[in-house]
Amino acid sequence: MISGLKLGRTLFEGGGVPTRALDAERGPAVLHGGYGETLEGVSETEAAAFAAMRKKLMLQAGVLKSFLTRKPPRPGDIGLGDAFQLGLTGLGLLRHGRQEARDFARMLLMNVADIADEYLTDDRLKGLIAFDATLGIHLGPRSPTSLLGLFYRLTGEVLGQAGGQYLPKGGMGTLARALETAAIAAGARLRLSSPVAQILTEKGSAIGVVLKNGEELRATEMVSAIHPVTTLQTFLPAGEIDTGLSRSLRHIRSKGNVAKLHLALDRVPVFTGVSLKDQRGRLVIAPSVNHVENAFNPAKYGAFSADPMMEITLPSMGDPSLAPPGACVLSALVQYAPYDLKEGWESGKPRFLETILSTIERYAPDIRNSIVAAELLVPPDIEARYRLPGGHWHHGELQADQLLINRPTFALSGYETPVQDLYLCSAGSHPGGGLSGVPGMNAARHIIAASKARSRR
Amino acid sequence: MTLDLATRKAAQPHFHTLLLESPFHARLAALDKTNDWYGWAGHKAPHALDDEELEYFAIRSTAAVFDISPMTKYRITGPGAVAFLDRLTVRNVAKLGINRVHYTAWCDDHGHVLDDGTLFRLGESEFRLCCQERHLPWLLDSAEGFAVDIREETGDVAGLALQGPTSCAILKEAGFAGVEALKPFQIGGFAHEGGTVTISRTGFTGDLGYELFVPRALALSLWDRLFAAGRLLGIRAIGYTALNRARIEAGFIVANADFITAETALRGNRLRLPDEIGLDWMIDLEKPNFNGRRAILAARAGKTLRHILVGLEIEGNVPPEHSLIYHNKRREVGIVTAAIWSPLAKRNIAIASLERPYGDRIQDGLWVEIYALRELQYQKLMKRARIVPRPFVTLARRSANPPGLF
């Protein structure tokens, strides 16, 4: 991806960030390298147990990875290439021995809590993998299939290192700027602040868009990185897609579970047991599997977690331009914040913010006095700001029934839409969300192949 | 237009009663001698009231009254009605004039026919859709994004088909002045008992005939008005058996008899595209997208159409009802879906579904295998079948303007 987009490896070099599973009493357990290649702050036996689990999960994630960068093979439409690839995957698995193949089949749809219990004893590590497996997904660690979320995370790789967490030099903004530069160098023209109002069609083909300002743009091929439901239900003229498809779009589960917290602080916060320079990494509050499970329970019934889990970063440590000298910006993903809050987010939001702050306070006792401004984005806010139906950052739940050929829904799984020349490439398409760029890469490959095939005809 | 589940359920209470009685039930029951009822879309309907032959010949010689109230009916109104119906059905609704009727069909995403029916354009943006099956959930889901109101009116509206050579004369005699001005597929509104009866020159017999719709409360008085007027012109209430003979002669197909509708079919290979049941002529590819358009185009382009519906003429006089069809007496290539000895054509006729290329590229060498049960013994017949155009019978009086007063 990095070389394909000509982003330059230097963008990420030295950008790997450790993960700290916080514990107010014992201090953090620290994962270094690609998802804990080395550990710090845990016993030797626990470190060995973690390494064994990590090895197993990485091997299995490696098998799954081969499915991510290809168009998912559709039953009834499986070509020679697909069959070959499936065969290779099976052989690749067997190469590791029958025991590994059996374990793969056994573990694929398991829940993360059982795997944590199988390998680990340290609650900090168990809580961390429970949190990482369920972040952004409407599942608790004991929900069946919750391990898939962890597999998905482990298939991610930067600079050949699987499962690593990276911050590009200068913060996430640098990545966006690098992508912009690469796109322009490749001959693209970007138009910012130009929201689309409608996609124009003619006899079943997409021919262009009308912008909100009334301007009309024509195109021979169109690729939408906007949520599939918005693309097909909001932008296309009524009736352009058939009733069956529009029914299935309505059934895509795409309601967010995560809130985003931004705090402007007048000084760098101090987290108990974490040195100032170590705060550059990912700080996770998920003390045990039970904590994560208990946080999930109310979300099933439309209430937010009373003791929420979260992942905290301090972006201004990587990008000093985000805060005045000496001050700090804190950003956190907070789970669980159900889209349909029973009491309504108007009254719920201030209460949830208070709950989050008092949770953070347990780990950074002095933080409240340093808050200059706070912003909490709950799923309806994310929906409105980023035009994501349901405010789901993955553009649709990342669960077994909405993956592969069923992402975003069976009829749309091949990046094509029923409207000719209109393609999908958002996180709502296979393989899904995260900053992987893979849906876009797969879609681009598919479109290039399709247009080559067409020009040959 | 979207409705929640509770509202949708409340809008279709029909299934609570096993067999509903039609608004005309009192009159039908009074005339009924055979007590031969069947269930038609959840309603009690007669196979025959009296002698089947007399009922059939009422259609062809005088006038027959057939109760069409059980037919499913939807009222579709609103500024988006034309656009909605264009999206729903395969024909071009913008081309359907006000006070006109057309025969149409609608498909699911895969192009499989969900039902066929008649669409009545009662005003600029007011329509009635008549069909075999209930479709409210499909209609409502298809209406997303259209300014349209859809109402189930099957139970609120009573319908009668008045068919046969004297039908126009009877309506005139009954005082529906100006009814003779109606051309085929035209609709007119006429006064009745302080209300309105909607009369269209339509029918399912291939004969001169009309269909009359009134609010349920006016049903019996309309029946009485017609029968009083028809006393000297010939009028007879009929059941489905007689009508079925007339419709086969006219070459019309019946959902779930000549093809299985997409939502009823349990087996994947029973699903049919319009081109597979002889409805390809309806499809308008010039209008904006309609349900099934892409699938139909793909099937045509990929040559994946697997069936074809044809008219057959079979030697002899034994109707090959549901007989197997063979090519060169060996290869099984299809089934007869409807067959009668046609009293009017004096021919043995049938509607049949064949597997392409038989019926399409290969037209000759077709045989039907008839098992004729003669007093507990089958007589097996192999009869030659010839593909012939539908309708099997064309009557000039059906389309004559003004219609004759027989």
Structure write-up:
The complex is a heterodimer of chains A (457) and B (406). Chain A is globular. The model of chain A has no long low-confidence stretch (mean pLDDT 91). Helices cover 37% and strands 15% of the residues of chain A. Chain A starts with 18 loop residues before the first strand and ends with a helix. Chain A is built from 13 helices and 15 strands. Chain A folds into 2 domains: 1-40 and 168-457, no CATH class; 41-162, no CATH class. Chain A has 457 residues and is of the alpha+beta class. Among the domains of chain B are: 5-71 and 155-250, Gyrase A, domain 2; 268-388, Aminomethyltransferase beta-barrel domains (Elongation Factor Tu (Ef-tu), domain 3), CATH 2.40.30. Chain B is 20% helix and 32% strand. In chain B, the strands form 4 sheets. In chain B, strands 10-11-12-9-3-13 form a 6-stranded mixed beta sheet. A 6-stranded antiparallel barrel of chain B has the order 14-17-16-15-18-19. In chain B, β18 (366-373) and β19 (378-388) form a beta hairpin. In chain B, α3 crosses α8 (240-250). Chain B starts with a helix and ends in a 7-residue tail after the last helix.
* β-sheet strand percentage of chain B: 25-35%
What is the residue-mean pLDDT of chain A, rounded to a whole number? 91
Mean pLDDT of chain B: 96
How do the helices and strands follow one another from N- to C-terminus of chain A?
EEEHHHHHHEEHEEEEHHEEHEEHEHEH
- Poorly predicted ranges of chain A (pLDDT <50, ≥5 residues)? none
Supply Rg of chain B: 21 Å
Helix content of chain A: 25-40%
Which class of the domain at 5-71 and 155-250 in chain B in CATH terms?
Alpha Beta
